[in-house]
Every structure is written in C-alpha cells, then in structure tokens.
Amino acid sequence: MLYRYLVGSLAAGALFLATSVLEAGVIYNLSGGTVTDLMESSVTDPTPLFGGPVVVANSITFSTGPFAAAQAGVGSDITAGQLSFVIQADPGLFIESISLDEIGDFLLLGNTAEVTAGGTLVATVLNPLIGGFVSSPIDIDPDMPQTGTGSGIWSGASTVVLTQLDATRVRVDLDNALIASADAPADAAFIDKKALTVNITFREVPEPATLALLGIGLIAAMKRPSIAVA
C-alpha cells in the first residue's frame, strides 16, 4: 500500500529535484543499432544513482552505487529514479523487443521492518506515422513487500514486445522505486539495487522481393481448387 501511494504521488506531477546526464552526447554501439540520449533523474535523491553503462553485443548494463533506501526507527525512506535513452536500429532492422533484468539485496531487523521494490519499463516508438508506446511492470522475486527480520537477494524482470509496430527508433524509460520502513523505534530496514541490464533484440526488415513472393503464394493458395474426399 505504501509503495502504491508513494509511486502514484510521484507520477501525479512531482517536479524532478535532480537530473544528471550519463556521458552526454556519447553514442553506444550495439550489434544491431545504437543507444543515445542517455539520461537519469530522481524526485527523491541527488544523482547519479546509476553508474556508467557497459555495452556487450545487444545488452547494456548499469551498475548502481547509492541506489538504496534505509530506515532506522519509526518512519519510511524512498529512493525513486528514472533512466531513459533512445535506441536506433541499424538500416535493415526493426526493434523486436526490450527486456530488463535487475538485482539487489535487502536486510530487515524487527517485526515491523518492511521493504518494497517496484517499477515499470516503457518503450515509446519515435518513428513518424507509427507512434504509440508499450509498457510492462517489473516483476519482483520474491514477492514484495518483505517484512519481519531476515535478509535476502531480490531480482526484477520485465519485457516489452514491439513486433507489430515495425519500430526502428524507440525511447526507453525505466522507472524504479525502493522503499524501506519501520513502525518500531528499535526496528530497521534496508534495500538496494546492485545492477540492471537491458537486452535489445532486433529482426530483419523483409525485402520487397520476399514480400512479393509471399503475396503471390497467398493468392495462389486462395485460387487453388478444393478437392473433395469421398
């Protein structure tokens, strides 16, 4: 409940308190395209919350240093951050899907200690005459919130599929939030994010000749006489 309230309040119109640019103007080369316009912002904490990206093939990984929420005693702490960038496919390729994998850990001391992680992956198509967006919540394992004394590792995953949109240019927005809270003076809660990886898949644009052959095949199949079987 606390997570839904806080994230809803932030999304409803809170002004960004801090904004940073990760290596502004740098073009990151993927196997099937490029990543540009890499930026992050936060309504709760000074940035940067994310470290510089590491690109391998069609994956881009960010380490996260101070992306954490901690609470000792009665109260709550939230760290919310947004990471955004633009993917441009190479000529002859469409952007097929974008997926997110992230990992972190948590520590709970006391019966009232509680931690929560959540977020959303959004892909907005920037191609003229196409537009639109696809979004997907980040699925967290184990289920959140986690309460009571204990510790562990959590992971998050999300995927957006763009197959039907024939997208060649897409803006990606990753919204993340971590919350730690406690209702007793002696209790404490901590949760952090260690790293996240974005994986991009591409598919080839069908050549006109291939499309024409497919069309001829469909027409021929429609005209083929049916054979009755006694």
Question: How would you describe this protein?
Answer:
- The chain has 230 residues and is mainly β.
- It contains two helices and 15 strands.
- The longest helix is centred in the last third of the chain and has 16 residues.
- The N terminus and C terminus are likely disordered.
Short note summarizing the structure:
With 230 residues, the protein is mainly β.
Helix content: 10-25%
- CATH class group: Mainly Beta
**Given the structure, what is the number of helices?**
2
Low-confidence stretches: 1-17, 209-222, 226-230
Instruction: Compute the separation of the termini in Å.
Output: 66 Å
Q: Structural class, from secondary structure content?
A: mainly beta
The gross shape turns out to be elongated
Let me know the average pLDDT: 85
Output the CATH topology: Jelly Rolls
What is the helix/strand order? HEEEEEEEEEEEEEEEH
Number of domains: 1
